[in-house]
Amino acid sequence: MAISGSAGGGEKRIIRYGMVGGGPGSFIGDVHRRAIALDGKAELVAGSFSDVEEEVFQTGRELGLDEDRMYVTYQEMAEKEAAREDGIDFVSIVVPNFLHFTVAKTFLQKGIDVVCEKPLCFEIEQAKELKEIARKNGCLFAVSYTYTGHVMAKQAREMIANGEIGEVRVVMAEYAQDWLIESDDELNMQGAWRTNPKLSGRSNCLGDIGSHAENMVNFMTGLKLKRLCAKMDTKVAGRVLDDNSQVLLEYENGATGTLWCSQVAIGNDNALRVRIFGKLGSIDFVQEDCNYLKVTKKGQPTQIYSRGTGVMGKNAGSYSRVPAGHPEGFYEAYGNIYSSFCSAVIDKQNGKKMDETSYGYPTIDMGIDGVKFVNKCCDSNHAGSVWVDFE
Ligand SMILES: NC(=O)c1ccc[n+]([C@@H]2O[C@H](COP(=O)([O-])OP(=O)(O)OC[C@H]3O[C@@H](n4cnc5c(N)ncnc54)[C@H](O)[C@@H]3O)[C@@H](O)[C@H]2O)c1
Predict the structure, then answer these.
(1) CB atoms inside a 10 Å sphere around CB 325
(2) Same domain, 120 and 172
(3) Which end of the chain is more exposed for a tag (fewer CB within 10 A), N or C?
(4) CA gap 148, 270 in Å, rounded
(5) How do residues 4-36 score in pLDDT, each as one tens digit?
(6) Is residue 5 part of a domain?
């Protein structure tokens, strides 16, 4: 696994972006906007922030956009922005899952680069279609798997690639939350669509957070899944989709693992944890304590690696923004993804020969793997929790 990419570097120029989603009361759109603003590499100039007309204008005005760049539909936005000389350089897609495919396709067809939230879409064929349209139209495509942007996740990836814990044998990934413990929790804006199969797809919990855990194992280790066996449960009466799932994993190199994700695990806020055990050592990454990494080398006492100190690898260290002991978190992780993506957009515009995978942001291939993962888990579960080949 080659390690590359960097938060800084490249030509300094402010590019323009637009956003679909992120209207009043929504969660992640505002996080994206603040994260992009951290580095000042891109400026928001257009948006279709909601499917409710007044909300589009409310958000657009709050953000200081020109009236003619607040769009009632994302189709109109793609059409008009593509026709402008000063049109957007990329679009950020932060709408519920069922819209990702059509919105991304609309902008790609206009030749506009895309950053899209996960899970990329519902069907594997749709995911591949997006990749093909992006390729044909020369578009860049990032899937915002947030946690890959954490400096210490990048540190784990770099250490594993350098062989510091030897060949990986066992992985344990978990992502536990407790915000959907009652059926009433489905009444809030975020809960409503996530638990509705029409808007969320075949899975709620696995798609929403299990896909992050799967992605983090792949990001940190580079391991490719060979087969899996999933048990998807619905713990809250009346709910249709899963809210607690467990998956057995087997990788092409023979490593094995377990993935657990839950939205009913009382006492857990946003507890993503990935433990990787190799022949020579182990690494433990805890998202809620993301400025640190627990590292144990065979026969030695466990060490706590602190972000921003002398232990940092060359690549991971380049993403660290403030000195050790000054916590970085969720915004910075998103900021790192966008910073790398903006550098790629500028390099593309400058005609630089480029390999998208070298920029350090999660590419569409990770998005495709995520869609495949969710669908294979559903296939396994529906067949009675049997082993299913990944390819
Ligand atoms: N990577 C992460 O860590 C992370 C975290 C949270 C959410 N997400 C993802 O982000 C996406 C959005 O999640 P959320 O929690 O912010 O949802 P949300 O329900 O809070 O917000 C969705 C927004 O999309 C808008 N919208 C709906 N239909 C639209 C349309 N046709 N055109 C324009 N806007 C439209 C809504 O008005 C709302 O403003 C989901 O795909 C989710 O999986 C990712």
Answers:
(1) 10
(2) no
(3) C
(4) 15
(5) 666 555 677 899 999 999 999 999 999 999 999
(6) no
